[in-house]
Specification:
Blueprint lengths: L2 E4 L5 E2 L6 E7 L5 E2 L17 E5 L3 E10 L17 E8 L5 E6 L12 E11 L3 E10 H6 L1
Parallel strand pairs: 1-10, 8-10
Antiparallel strand pairs: 2-3, 3-4, 3-5, 6-7, 6-9, 7-8, 9-10
The protein binds zinc ion.
Zinc ion binds next to loops.
Length: 147
């Protein structure tokens, strides 16, 4: 069994039963940040250094999207040869009202519609003989329910 690691340490809970992005919450003003903040709250009226890790909502609403029709430049590592176009989604998290980008799992741009409900999933970004590097993707909730 290969060792599974997150693409960026500390950004992602890679438990398949509980995939979550990990952000930071300010203990003083409640502001939430992603990617994580380690030094000080980014709220200019706060500036507290009392920051704690917090898991973000795993569902949100599709705010916008685009298609990657051409192979992105390095350090992008293609998973297929030849390159297969994929969609990139900007999803507004339900509770935090933050927009998080990610590749789309399960459908291309033709399967997306602004306003649809999306959920976080996990997928393999890179793989070698010993290690599987895991990243997050967004998937329309309707795809899972129809599967
Ligand atoms: Zn704060």
């Amino acid at each position: 069994m290969k060792k599974r690691i997150p693409a960026v340490e500390g950004w992602l809970n890679i438990d398949p039963a509980h995939p979550r992005l990990i952000g930071t919450k300010c203990s003083d003003c409640g502001s939430i940040f992603f990617p994580r903040e380690t030094v000080r709250c980014r709220n200019p009226r706060c500036g507290s250094s009392r920051l704690e890790a917090t898991e973000l909502s795993s569902r949100g609403t599709l705010w916008s999207y685009t298609g990657a029709e051409y192979k992105p430049p390095e350090p992008y590592v293609p998973r297929t040869d030849p390159f297969q176009p994929f969609a990139i989604a900007a999803v507004e998290l339900a509770a935090e009202k933050m927009v998080i980008l990610g590749q789309v799992d399960g459908v291309g741009v033709e399967g997306l519609k602004v306003g649809m409900e999306m959920e976080l999933t996990l997928d393999t970004l890179l793989e070698d003989d010993e290690t599987e590097t895991i990243t997050w993707k967004w998937k329309p909730v309707s795809v899972r329910e129809n599967a």
